[in-house]
Amino acid sequence: MLTQVLEEARREERGLKGLTFQNETLEGADGEKLDFEQVRFVNCRLLNCDFTKAAFYDAVLEGCDLSGSQFEDSYWKNCTLKGCKAEGGRFAGSVFRGCRWEDCRLIWANFSESRWENSALTDCFLKESFLSRLQLKKTRLEKCDLSGADLYGTMLAGMNLAGCQVQGLRVSESCAELRGVRMDLFQAAEMAKLLGIQIV
To answer: What is the largest CA-CA distance in the chain?
Structure first.
């Protein structure tokens, strides 16, 4: 059903609205520049699909596998992604407004140069992900694994990373990205290593 609906939407140059898809598999499909409004994906597999410059409004993705799919320069507003897998997902240049990501596996995902406003990521696995040059406004990271993440050029001033895993963060030589960030004592000790400080 999903494959047919997507093909029709592209052929008729219209978006998808108010639909629910469950236990569907879509592989290698072209969803570029399509609008998805109040669309719900439950336990779907969207593999190696192209959603470049697509827009998602009030959409819900729950328990979905987005492996290998492209979402560069996409737009997301008031969306929820819960229990999804997007390892190696490509979201560079995207905009997220009022979005909630919960319990998502985003290892190696690329969010470089994306913008986040009034959003939150909770219990997400962002190990070795690319979070460089992000624009963050009223956005929270709660209990996320940021081990080895690339945060080059992403200013974290005012953000509270207490409760997140921060081992091996990659930042600029000056560590300017970390100025004004809030961390617990153990995290601060980890960050001291980046500055060459030895705690005795």
So the answer is: 67
